[in-house]
Amino acid sequence: MNALPALQNLELNDLLLDNADARHLLDELCYSNCHKLRTLRLVNVSKEPCPLMHVGIFVALRELWLSPVTIGDEVVVLLGSSKVRDLIIYQDKHSEEAPPVNRKSWKKCAGNNPELRVHLLIQGPSVRRDHIWQPGAPVASVIYETPTSRISPWGLMTVVENYSQTLRAFGHVGAPHFQSPKKFSERFDSMLVLLCRSCRQLETLVIRERVSTCTLLLMASSATSLRRFIVRRNAVVLRNDWPANPEWTPVFRQWLKRNSRSYERTEAEIGSGIGHVGWKMLPDVRFKAVKLDVRQL
């Protein structure tokens, strides 16, 4: 790497080094490229938790990918003094065990670098665990790209409690390898509506698990900033299955009842609400092709 002084983008994946080697992985790069590197992707470079302090030295760095095992309090504080705009915390089967960063460190980082956006991304067919949550981080997106990840009430509540002021995107991408519950009482429709009501900056939402047309209408009417709403058509049941809410007016209750009885009316009302005339739920073929670039969310 010392022989590439003009290098601007570097990607190192799955090295799985011992900590002694991982700590010195970027020594030469810091010497030769500290003023030029703009994108750095370090995914699974160590086997065990090993914060890489070097990432705070690259003064031109704008985009940084790290596994949870290479982030620590000191690293986060350093990023507060950097020009990094997108920090993608990438998690897969090699990085499911790591401690979260202290809330105070994230708060200090966000205070010093208010333009920093953190993205929590899980990928891979073998991932079984949820995100390693980072309380206090300025999280802009929470994305699952794994067929085994389900909607979790605990996970949704964690998102609402920690990221309601910063979240711009949330979703599960790709075809699921599991069956969703059919009964309303066994699903988490109410938690999804809570997410939409609480996260006022939410612009992108991807839903692949079973929900009702009534739930979709409630989500779209609650998420005032929603502009990109991607829904898997085969998971949507035609039903007005919500219990009566005393906060609903008779007009709103009738609106839900009438439109949730038709897929076409549900789509038309959602399209009107999010400013996307002609909005449609996606068949499986098109839903499987959906890709989210967290840097553009």
TrEMBL record:
InterPro entries on file: LRR_dom_sf
Superkingdom assignment: Eukaryota
Classification via PANTHER family: F-BOX DOMAIN-CONTAINING PROTEIN, PTHR20872
Designated name of the protein: Uncharacterized protein
Species of the source: Notodromas monacha
